[in-house]
Amino acid sequence: MSTTTTTHLNLRGDARAALDFYHSVFGGDVVAATRTRVTSPARTRRTG
């Protein structure tokens, strides 16, 4: 049995540079979701 973890980071400023640094140190896959992409009106439905 294997275990998978997912780390969520909230970065201010130049987040892409920080992600590139962490990737160079730890390796793995980087999946970046910007606030604009996550909360865009096309993806968010409000009711009421």
Query: What's the Cα radius of gyration?
Result: 15 Å
**H/E series, N to C?**
HH
The computed structural class is: mainly alpha
Q: What would the principal axes of the Cα set say about the shape?
A: flat
How far is the N terminus from the C terminus? 44 Å
Number of strands: 0
Low-confidence stretches: none
Give the rounded overall mean pLDDT: 75
Helix content percent band: 25-40%
Number of helices: 2
What is the strand content? under 5%
Tell me about the largest β-sheet: none
SSE layout:
Elements: H1 15-26, H2 35-38
Highlighted features:
single chain; 2 helices
Describe this structure in words.
- This protein is mainly α.
- The protein has a domain at 10-42.
- The chain is 33% helix and 0% strand.
- The longest helix is centred in the middle third of the chain and has 12 residues, at 15-26.
- The termini are far apart.
